[in-house]
């Protein structure tokens, strides 16, 4: 082996050691955090399993929080709605995004921040982002995208994201919009405009998957990518994957991150944790076709 090769393999070894140390630190922080779940702002929610402990909140008052994800230094200010919803308000169209930041959004945020190169120079759309659109907000805060549009079909979610956006000066063009999937007059202005679309925990409602698929197809340019994060939840995730196969190259990733795996193993000891309901799977969709 030449000196140069030895040096480069040593620095590669050092780099791997640094990466490994950083991952263990992230995991240790997240484990501490998940031991302390009730201290998180979403302890008001009715969810039994609340989070993987990857998000760090600093309370700023009047429902505002500075939030960062444990794998990144980017921060945004978001308002978390603290409202009680009756069971009937939670069904139909659709207050589920105003209840809390769901674990899928937490995982989408973490995944995006670990893989920012996916977004470099791209126009990006978050669908069904709920009351924070946290993944989109933090990706926008990284400054790597050319444009970020945050959407939900629920007007209260969107007005809340607009309030949050006013508290941040993000380094890229960012806006919040009502965009109900499959509603032509709301979807068509975005036709073919996006390189990347993403959504978290949006596969739950049986009557929503068709329109979500149509919307992804409409908004993505040919060759564009969708990141869909959701629990398996009694076949809903795999059902959506099957629906996508005629239109997208579909990859399903269960093991996308060592830290998340460790947290899921730990969560499995929580009596409230149900892997089928709570573990977010990742689906990466590539729209078939060329520009
Ligand atoms: C379970 S919440 C997830 C919210 C957020 N992504 C999270 O994980 O915290 C599902 C979101 O999808 C939105 N949604 C459901 N059906 C929709 C539709 N047809 N058009 C647009 N948004 C919809 C809801 O308003 C809600 O915010």
UniProtKB/TrEMBL annotation:
<dbReference type="GO" id="GO:0005634">
    <property type="term" value="C:nucleus"/>
</dbReference>
<keyword id="KW-0539">Nucleus</keyword>
<dbReference type="InterPro" id="IPR029063">
    <property type="entry name" value="SAM-dependent_MTases_sf"/>
</dbReference>
<protein>
    <recommendedName>
        <fullName>Calmodulin-lysine N-methyltransferase</fullName>
        <ecNumber>2.1.1.60</ecNumber>
    </recommendedName>
</protein>
<keyword id="KW-0489">Methyltransferase</keyword>
<dbReference type="InterPro" id="IPR019410">
    <property type="entry name" value="Methyltransf_16"/>
</dbReference>
<feature type="region of interest" description="Disordered">
    <location>
        <begin position="1"/>
        <end position="21"/>
    </location>
</feature>
<dbReference type="GO" id="GO:0005737">
    <property type="term" value="C:cytoplasm"/>
</dbReference>
<dbReference type="Pfam" id="PF10294">
    <property type="entry name" value="Methyltransf_16"/>
</dbReference>
<dbReference type="InterPro" id="IPR025800">
    <property type="entry name" value="CaM-Lys-N-MeTrfase"/>
</dbReference>
<dbReference type="GO" id="GO:0018025">
    <property type="term" value="F:calmodulin-lysine N-methyltransferase activity"/>
</dbReference>
<keyword id="KW-0963">Cytoplasm</keyword>
<keyword id="KW-0808">Transferase</keyword>
<dbReference type="GO" id="GO:0032259">
    <property type="term" value="P:methylation"/>
</dbReference>
């Amino acid at each position: 082996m030449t000196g140069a090769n030895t040096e480069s393999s040593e620095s590669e070894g050092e780099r791997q050691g640094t990466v490994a140390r950083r991952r263990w630190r992230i995991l240790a922080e997240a484990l501490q955090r998940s031991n302390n779940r009730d201290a998180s702002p979403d302890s008001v929610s009715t969810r039994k399993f609340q989070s993987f402990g990857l998000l760090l909140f600093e309370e700023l008052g009047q429902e505002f929080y500075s939030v960062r994800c444990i794998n990144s230094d980017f921060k945004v200010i978001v308002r978390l709605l603290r409202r009680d919803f009756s069971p009937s308000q939670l069904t139909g169209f659709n207050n589920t995004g105003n209840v809390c930041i769901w674990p899928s959004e937490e995982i989408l945020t973490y995944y995006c921040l670990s893989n920012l190169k996916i977004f470099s120079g791209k126009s990006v759309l978050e669908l069904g982002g709920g009351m924070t659109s946290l993944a989109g907000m933090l990706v926008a805060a990284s400054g790597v995208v050319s444009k970020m549009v945050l959407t939900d079909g629920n007007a209260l979610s969107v007005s809340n994201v607009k309030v949050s956006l006013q508290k941040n000066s993000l380094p890229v063009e960012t806006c919040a919009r009502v965009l109900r999937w499959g509603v032509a007059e709301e979807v068509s202005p975005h036709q073919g405009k996006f390189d990347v679309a993403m959504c978290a925990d949006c596969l739950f409602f049986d009557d929503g998957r068709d329109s979500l698929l149509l919307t992804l197809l409409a908004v993505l340019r040919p060759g564009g990518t969708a990141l869909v994060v959701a629990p398996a939840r009694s076949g809903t995730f795999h059902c959506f994957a099957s629906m996508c196969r005629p239109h997208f190259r579909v990859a399903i990733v269960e093991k996308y991150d060592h830290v998340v795996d460790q947290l899921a193993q730990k969560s499995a000891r929580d009596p409230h944790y149900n892997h089928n309901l709570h573990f977010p799977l990742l689906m990466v969709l590539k729209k078939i076709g060329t520009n």
